[in-house]
Amino acid sequence: VRSVFLRDQIGTETWERFAVKMLQVGGDTNFLNDLPGLRFLHTHIDTKANTWFSDHRMQIPFAGPPGKIPRISYIDVLHNQVPQNTFRNKYVLVGITAAGMGGDSYPTPVSTDGQAMSGIEITANIMDALLQGITLEPVTPLANTLFSLLPVSGLLLSLVWLSPRRALLFCLLL
Question: What pLDDT does residue 128 have?
């Protein structure tokens, strides 16, 4: 999982992702006027056709590897082993985070050693990014092309212009 669509539409009905709705219910709506993410604007949407349309594709800026977002065991809460003010003025997401419990877990760019991230923690990362106003923007196609071609071009030119030893050193440096 690297990105998420923050809004979906079928006909004239629109739905925001769970993370967006949680923040709306909590009163954090500063980001709603300028919802982040790539826009997929269509000049004509047939509202009579039941066409699924997704918008505001956001690259998820993960806070860290799985487990970075604080977790509290449900059983600890039931047995009053958690201080009462732990949840004050905080968003609380309830879900399965344990591996092998049948919950949803997905590989992410920050997953290490094959450890997947639970769906509920992915949602928490999305909420955290929206609250902090953190967004990731993809590079332009021109920048992507330049950063891909320049090292290869430099390497090829070094093979022509430099001695084999220097070309090898340049290759290692590159």
Answer: 92
pLDDT value of position 142:
94
The residue among 5, 62, 61, 60 whose CA lies nearest residue 38 is 5
Amino acid, res. 27? G
One-letter amino acid identity for 116? A
Average pLDDT over residues 125-135: 90
Q: Which residues pair with 117 in a beta bridge?
A: 106
Q: Which residues contact 122 (CB under 8 A, 6 or more apart)?
A: 1, 4, 60, 106, 108
Q: Are 60 and 4 in contact (CB under 8 A)?
A: yes
For the segment 69-123, what is each residue's pLDDT rounded down to a tens digit? 888 888 898 999 999 899 888 898 888 766 666 668 888 999 888 788 888 899 9
CA 26/CA 129 separation, integer angstroms: 15
Residues ≥6 apart with Cβ < 8 Å to 110: 62, 64, 65, 66, 117
